[in-house]
From TrEMBL:
It comes from Sedimentitalea nanhaiensis. One of its GO terms (molecular function) is sulfur carrier activity. It holds the Pfam family FdhD-NarQ. Keywords: Cytoplasm, Molybdenum cofactor biosynthesis. Belongs to the FdhD family. This is Sulfur carrier protein FdhD. It is found in: Cytoplasm. GO terms for biological process: Mo-molybdopterin cofactor biosynthetic process.
């Protein structure tokens, strides 16, 4: 993505010829079984320092899988309040270095102040979605309330959501060590999915891909391979998606946020069953009883 900024050309030239960061690495090991031991090789996922840079200031450095970086950057910028939409981005470049990746934004003048309000300056490990936030108020910022009505998800669609996502996880199939986030329409079709070593990163990548592709989050559900923590609810609500289906449990605080934001939250969605914890009206449970 290149927009009205003279610095874009020079960034692109610096990017030319730089190394591509590998997604996986094959490593040796020894497997131990009841019948004995033998040598093996495994594909392990790489994680690469990825800097989110706004108007020349690094706002965050996250460890991420080095794929779909533009999606990740756009989703991060949206869900963390740096931008409200693509119209806030004057220019954007991805620059690859030997030791990592930079996603460089130049914001519209009226949005530049967001960098100061959401200041982050520390390395964020993949297990932490709130690293570097410099106040408790920012960590638990108020969420918008999703509108009533709209999307309805059938019981059968909710039951098969995480199974449907499995068909869109090639990196997980190779490594067994990454998370995925997918967008499922009301008919149960996963039309878009992203993977990453970090569950927050996978969700940001998905939201960024939807933003760039002009996909309305209100028309479907987000499906996760992870637990549901506070930041996963925050990102889903800020994106404007009304239904969140996850393979694992929510935290109690995440559930409170979902209730207040009118987000439908279902968890333990695997093996043909699921639990509903917040705003069940968007899932047609009558059909579940009939089955």
């Amino acid at each position: 993505m290149r927009r009205r900024h003279n610095r874009a050309a020079s960034c692109q030239r610096r990017n030319s010829g730089m190394r591509a960061h590998r997604l996986t690495q094959s490593v040796p090991g020894v497997t131990v079984r009841h019948e004995g031991m033998h040598d093996i090789r495994r594909s392990l996922p790489e994680e690469t320092p990825t800097a989110l840079v706004f108007d020349g200031t690094t706002a965050a450095v996250m460890m991420a899988s080095p794929s779909d970086i533009e999606d990740f950057a756009m989703g991060f910028a949206l869900t963390e309040g740096f931008i409200r939409g693509l119209e806030d981005v004057m220019d954007f470049e991805v620059v690859s270095h030997a030791h990592g990746i930079e996603a460089r934004f130049w914001l519209a003048p009226e949005r530049a102040e967001a960098v100061h309000r959401r200041r982050r300056n520390v390395l964020g490990p993949v297990g932490c979605g709130l690293c570097g936030i410099d106040s408790l108020e920012q960590a638990l910022r108020p969420l918008p309330v999703l509108p009533e009505g709209g999307l309805r998800v059938s019981c059968s669609t909710a039951r098969q959501a995480t199974d449907a996502l499995r068909a869109h996880q090639p990196l997980h199939d190779q490594t067994r060590a990454v998370h995925a986030a997918g967008f499922m329409n009301s008919g149960g079709v996963i039309g878009l999915a992203r993977e990453d070593v970090g569950r927050h990163n996978a969700l940001d990548k998905l939201i960024g891909a939807m933003l760039r592709g002009g996909i309305n989050p209100a028309t479907g559900a987000i499906v996760l391979t992870s637990r549901v923590s506070v930041e996963m609810v925050q990102k889903t609500v800020i994106a404007g998606c009304p239904v969140l289906l996850a393979v694992s449990a929510p935290t109690a605080h995440a559930l409170r946020l979902a209730e207040g934001a009118r987000l439908t939250l279902a968890a333990f969605a695997r093996g043909g069953s699921f639990d509903i914890y917040a705003h069940p009206e968007r899932i047609q449970t009558g059909a579940c009883h009939a089955a």
